[in-house]
Specification:
Blueprint (H helix, E strand, L loop, with lengths): L13 E3 L8 H9 L4 E3 L3 E2 H5 L2 E5 L4 E5 L5 E6 L6 E6 L6 H11 L5 E6 L4 H4 L11 H14 L4 E6 L4 H12 L5 E5 L13 H10 L4 E4 L9 H11 L3 E4 L1 H5 L12 H14 L4 H12 L6 H8 L3 H7 L3 H21 L1 H4 L9 E4 L14 H11 L6 E6 L6 E7 L2 E5 L6 H15 L12 H9 L8 H5 L12 E2 L33
Parallel strand pairs: 1-2, 1-12, 2-7, 3-7, 7-8, 8-9, 9-10, 10-11, 11-12, 13-16, 14-17
Antiparallel strand pairs: 4-5, 5-6, 14-15, 15-16
Helix pairs in contact: 1-10, 3-5, 6-7, 10-11, 13-14, 16-17
Keywords: Cytoplasm, Endoplasmic reticulum, Flavoprotein, FMN, Oxidoreductase, Phosphoprotein, RNA-binding, tRNA processing
Pfam families: dsrm, Dus
Organism: Galemys pyrenaicus
Length: 517
């Protein structure tokens, strides 16, 4: 039996609640900046976490847990190590040992382990997860007891109240006996939503019954509008601590004793963290939209809505120069690290022959969406009666960046600059080929009339006919699976290491909006 020897105090704390799609690293760090004592990550399904590998990201100075599709499921850093609580939600078909395996996977990188038994959303409850566990106290007891005995980190859980006070008190007493360090109580029933009043009386009854700390949750809609309201909510519930969800999502400076900061200042600070820690732009955009709320139709809100990258988000908030400076610093750090460990990082060898290389990147803003370098290259190959371009793309595990080599007429072309996506890397390779041949690459102002003519003819063709197939989007015609770089493996691509992956990087979004999960 292990002893939870690294204690975490849950008394008199201000806590950022676990929120789906909101509780990622930038938001957690921002909440800490504004005075939160503890921060919870978004709820993460145990089965998905067990499929992850732990990677130390030397470029970002983070620890990443990466899924088989190379998506970052959980990212943390040293600054929050002693203050971040990892919250898991169990797959309904799993047993307690699976939860323990996840806890052991992350316990060296987090301060505490929490089990979500309070999320009322259908995507959780339909699989026996979240609030669905409240109807199975035997399973609750087994999960928590197994975790308490098997992990070195303090274990907590988060619940909702049951229909009757008697049943609620009976359940929390049973939970306390498992040895958990604290319990978070959302003061609403499973079927209730934020518009329903939170039951401060029930939370108070629980706090007066248990000897472990009780963390009150659910006050954003009715009670918490500023910092002083947090203490009022704590006193109304007699709780040891308060966990804040929606009010913190709307403005994380809710934790600041001096009062709320201007929203634009808060959003700019969030964006800086998002860029510094390479947060996916869709997640950055989602969190900023939650902050803007009724201002989404403002000029700035419309710019945010139209943004398709972190760079465009930065430009919408006057942080374009910051983005350029930060990305240059990250690129320099990446290059420095790769120079020290070329083999492990997957850099091509210097004696590679037969590949024409050039340091270029594809900047989508310099090209028409209807005319990309890949399209120009395909059109030129058709005109010269050459075989279609063939793209081979590799991914290095250090930072999950991509590099593509395009083969045209048995000659290979490659950009020496790695990119964040497979599509961008392929476009860069096409640019190298086109520039080497002195050909137009589709930059604004140098469109190809023949390509425009072909595009105009396409809608009139039979969608299933051979001409339609010929005019399909390049890349769909000549796709090859990309490979992830490993060690000790040979690749047709200049002897680089190779591992065939099933799909490109994608950011999974759960349905619904963030809530007091």
């Amino acid at each position: 039996m292990l002893v939870n020897n690294l204690s975490l105090c849950y008394h008199n704390k201000l806590i950022l609640a676990p929120m789906v799609r909101v509780g990622t690293l930038p938001m957690r760090l921002l909440a800490l900046d504004y005075g939160a004592d503890l921060v919870y990550c978004e709820e993460l399904i145990d089965l998905k976490m067990l499929q992850c590998r732990r990677v130390v990201n030397e470029v970002l100075s983070t620890v990443d847990f990466i899924a088989p599709d190379d998506r970052v499921v959980f990212r943390t850093c040293e600054r929050e190590q002693n203050r971040v609580v990892f919250q898991m939600v169990r797959d309904g078909t799993s047993d307690a040992e699976r939860a323990l395996a996840v806890a052991r996977l992350v316990e060296n990188d987090v301060a505490g382990i929490d089990v979500n038994m309070g999320c009322p959303k259908e995507y959780s409850t339909k699989g026996g997860m979240g609030a669905a566990l409240l109807s199975d106290p035997d399973k609750i007891e087994k999960i928590l007891s197994t975790l308490v005995k098997g992990t070195r980190r303090p274990v907590t859980c988060k619940i909702r109240i049951l229909p009757s006070l008697e049943d609620t008190l009976s359940l929390v007493k049973r939970i306390e006996r498992t040895g958990i360090a604290a319990i978070t109580v959302h003061g609403r029933k499973r079927e209730e939503r934020p518009q329903h009043p939170v039951s401060c009386e029930t939370i108070r009854a629980i706090a007066e019954t248990l000897s472990i700390p009780v963390i009150a949750n659910g006050g954003s809609h009715d009670h918490i509008q500023d910092y002083l309201d947090i203490e009022d909510f704590r006193q109304a519930t007699a709780a040891s601590s308060v966990m804040v969800a929606r009010a913190a999502m709307w403005n994380p400076s809710i934790f600041l004793k001096e009062g709320l900061r201007p929203l634009e200042e808060v959003m700019q600070k969030y964006i800086r963290y998002a860029v510094q820690y390479d947060n996916h732009y869709t997640n950055t955009k989602y969190c900023l939209c939650q902050m803007l709320r009724e201002q989404l139709e403002s000029p700035q809100g419309k710019l945010l809505h139209a943004a398709q990258s972190n760079q465009e988000i930065c430009e919408a908030f006057g942080l374009g120069a910051f983005y350029e400076e930060t990305t240059q610093q990250l690129d320099a750090r990446r290059a420095e690290f790769l120079a020290k460990t070329p083999k492990e990082a997957g850099e091509p060898t210097e004696d590679t022959s037969g590949v024409i290389k050039m340091a270029v990147k594809f900047d989508r803003r310099a090209y028409s969406p209807q005319l990309t370098p890949k399209m120009c290259l395909l059109e030129w190959c058709r005109r010269e009666k050459l075989a279609q371009p063939v793209y081979e793309t590799v991914q290095r595990p250090l930072d999950r960046f991509f590099c593509s080599v395009v083969t045209v007429a048995q000659q290979k072309y490659q950009s020496t600059l790695w990119d964040k996506s497979k599509k961008l890397a392929e476009q860069a390779a096409a640019i190298v080929c086109l520039r080497s041949q002195g050909l137009p690459e589709g930059r604004l102002g140098e469109e190809s009339p023949s390509l425009h003519k072909r595009k105009r003819e396409t809608p009139d063709q039979d969608p299933g006919g051979p001409q339609a197939q010929e005019s399909a989007v390049p890349g769909e015609l000549c796709k090859k699976p990309f490979v992830a770089l490993g060690s000790g493996e040979e690749s047709p691509l200049e002897g680089w290491s190779k591992k065939v992956l099933a799909s490109a990087i994608s950011l999974e979004h759960r349905p619904g909006v963030a809530q007091d999960a």
